[in-house]
Specification:
single chain; alpha/beta; nine-stranded mixed β-sheet
Length: 358
């Protein structure tokens, strides 16, 4: 498995190039849509297959909704009339619990797949911060952990085959944050599912990762870092570390080489908008350092320095829910979105993986 992962080809923005390929017409008609509701697939119940007229943002297509057992994996497959012959699976952020929006890929002629990964979340960010579904529900944990994306992909390919008369000639996955973790999981466990995978800011090693959240929550519980001070902190980080990568361009290229000391912002008197209290400085040190065990060994990296005002700090450190979306290569370069509604934690940069030669 390790060899397989290490042998994959890392291609920055490869999917954006693939997504730019002009559609090759593979037409299907409205009359072929509704019969999909009676399609028989293993462990799958198709609840509806409905024809969707074109809108300003998406072309006419057949929308198929259903559930995959033995748990409750909800999915949506969208089949454009004019198909480019390819499948795009949109990953989801947080604990998912909602159907990610794949409309941008649909607009480019892709058949699309998306899954709630086996449960419905409630609360902010489409319920993606809700983990209550996991209690005493091992099947849901399995489905969220690795199974839902795989079986949804298999199901989507079967539905596309039934609709178009042939399966997709190429299949791609893109996700960010938890969706990036889904991407890595697919590459590890089911490398045959996709021809290309984009893993944006992947949240993986879930147990250690969650310790990071707990660590940060404890660090800022008594002394929150106000949202308004994040740009102040980022400016100080940039001032100190921008040039360390050899180019003064407002970016800290390698945060690992940046040893930022928050004390440079210490208030000389009372707390003020342009400085940090000693308690805030100590909380920041913990956030940057990351969780350690009782022996002092670091369990997982802390938040990297250099993206404080635009790297998920708003929701994860300052505690202000944000609708800003997780960046990924194809989104930034070609406006295709996989709809991860959870801000990335910036623990990892986006990577693209080609799982087998094209
Ligand atoms: Ca720089």
């Amino acid at each position: 498995m390790h060899r397989r992962i290490s042998s994959v080809v890392v291609l920055a923005a490869s999917l954006s190039i693939l997504l730019a390929v002009a559609p090759t017409a593979q037409a299907a008609s409205a009359s072929q849509c509704s019969p999909l509701s009676s399609l028989q697939l293993s462990q799958t119940t198709i609840s509806r297959a409905t024809w969707q007229a074109a809108t300003a943002s998406v072309p006419q297509h057949c929308r198929v909704e259903g559930m995959i057992g033995p748990g409750t994996i909800g999915f949506v497959v969208q089949l454009p009339t004019s198909w480019n012959g390819r499948l795009y699976h949109a990953g989801g952020g947080g604990y998912v619990g909602f159907i990610p929006d794949a409309s941008a890929a649909l607009a480019k002629g892709y058949a699309t797949a998306a899954t709630d990964t086996g449960h419905k979340g409630t609360g902010p960010l489409d319920g993606a911060l809700d983990a209550t579904w996991a209690l005493n529900n091992p099947q849901a944990v399995i489905d969220f952990g690795y199974r839902a994306v795989h079986v949804t992909t298999t199901t989507a390919k079967a539905i596309a085959s039934a609709y178009y008369g042939r399966g997709p000639k190429r299949s791609y996955f893109e996700g960010c944050s938890r969706g990036g973790g889904q991407a890595l999981m697919e590459a590890q466990r089911f490398p045959g599912d996709f021809d290309g995978i984009v893993a944006g800011a992947p949240a993986f090693h879930w147990t250690e990762f969650m310790q990071g959240f707990n660590w940060d929550s404890r660090a800022v519980a008594a002394t929150p870092i106000p949202l308004e001070k994040l740009p102040l902190i980022e400016r100080a980080v940039t001032k100190q570390c921008d040039a360390s990568d050899g180019l003064v361009d407002g970016l800290v290229q390698d945060p690992r080489a940046c040893r930022f000391e928050p004390a440079v912002l210490r208030c000389q008197g009372a707390d003020a908008p342009d400085c940090l209290t000693m308690a805030q400085i100590e909380a920041l040190r913990e956030v940057y350092a990351g969780p350690a065990n009782s022996s002092g060994r670091r369990i997982t990296p802390g938040f990297p320095a250099g993206s404080e005002s635009n790297g998920g700090w708003d929701v994860w450190i300052s505690g202000v829910p944000s609708r800003r979306r997780c960046n990924s290569p194809s989104r930034t370069s070609s406006s295709v979105t996989s709809s991860s509604t959870i801000p990335a934690t910036t623990h990892s940069r986006s990577i693209s993986i080609r799982t087998r030669p094209s």
